[in-house]
Amino acid sequence: MTTNATGRRVQAVLASLLLAQALPCTAQPAQASRPLLRVALGESKPPYVMDDEDAGIEYSIVSSLLETAGYRVRVSFVPNRRGQLMLADGEVDAAISLDGPYQSEPYIAYKNMAITLCSKKIALTDVSGLSLHRVAAFQNAHLFLGPSFAAMAGNNPDYREISPQVGIDRLLYSGRIDVAVSDISIFTYFSRRLGPQFDTRQQLCAYPLFPPTLYRLSFRDPVARDRFNGALAAALKGELYERIAQRYQVSLSKGEPYFKPPSVPAAVERTPPMPQAPTAPMPR
Question: SS3 helix, strand, coil % of the chain, rounded to 5?
Answer without folding.
Answer: 40, 20, 40
